[in-house]
Amino acid sequence: MKKIYFLLAFALLFLVNCKEDTPGQYPVDGTPPSPLKNVQVIGRFGGGVTLKYDIPDDQDLLYVVARYTLDTGTPMEIKASMYETRMDIVGYSLEAEHEVELKTVDRSRNESQPVTIKIQPKESSIHSIFRSLEIFPDFGGIFIRWENEERSDITVMVSKPITETSDLTEPVVNFYSNAALGSGNVRGFAADSQMFIIRIQDRWGNLTGDKAGKYLPKYEEECNKALFKRWNGDPDIPYNQYSGSWPIENLWDNVWNNGASANGFHTRSGAIPMPNKITFDLGATYTLSRFKIMHRPTTYVFNHGNPKHFKLYGSLTPYARMAYDDSDDPAVQDLKWQFIGEFDTTKPSGLPLGENSDEDIQVSSVDGIDYTCPAEYSQPLRYLRMDVQEIWAGQADFIHMMEMSLWGEPQK
Known about the structure:
- This protein is mostly beta strands.
- It has three helices and 24 strands.
- Strands 15, 16, 18, 19, 20, 21, 22 and 24 form an eight-stranded antiparallel sheet that branches.
- The radius of gyration is 30 Å and the shape is elongated.
- The model is unreliable at 1-22 (pLDDT under 50).
């Protein structure tokens, strides 16, 4: 019985002691620690500076805290361990003079006298990115391109007026990126003059000005998948199917993200060496503007047989022949497959094979990976050929895709 009482008392004591989880110890004195010494700026970068300082020799010192206010009016507080002698002050927008207050804090949560230092960070990288913005009319909207040398985490925000004469705007799309060379396509607009407004935001809420202009989107529509069909008119490109569950018709049935054995097309290993080639009939003639590929999901994302590097060809006639690809003979020009473009698939996160971020998964197997057809090779076609040069698992001799959607301008 005494043992039971002891255990109950211990449990009660444990619950009381665990009611509040606070850093450090409960205050045992009211003596503040000594302030920092020799605080100086040793580096300037976009939106901030690096400080260096000497830590006081106080045995109960816990951390250093910096407090300051951003250009947006947002108060900031950054803490550094007592073992650190450097601290980055971040989040500013403009290259201007600012004040930062630094204090030491001990285990009794006493704060030292403040040390105030004046700093002048370089302007945030959003401004140089904004100056690099290029905007072009594109099929169904506009194409935006920018440079981000510091690879900062940014949001490129695209909006438009609610009505042609309104000062009120509505969001169209946001692009989240930290790529050195970034780009984005704004799609889904009619071939009428459209006003677009673009600004850039960083992760602290700093904003650039607006870059606004009227652009005339080129006409496009999604190719009608109901007309697509299997076609193997080129004798040098035999049909290659992994099994009865993976026919090429699955590429245009609008089903893709339902598990590892998802509804898609898969070629058989050992049947045809790389590059694996597939063909099909669009059922109508288009000048292609862009297309989208859905990867096989789950553990196959940016892995296994998902295409990494490939070429696309097209033909107006069912008599296209791969054998004439490199021929300059004018007599066979109509029989050559016409080059559309060469495409690389970039993994958003840049993580190693087998490691994927949430963005990688979303882009590859939910939203789909977008590709734009180069305008210099733009031409009408009906029959499509895809040469997969490399898959994500390396130079294996098979491929798989869940869905392929295409857009373009229909031709009579």
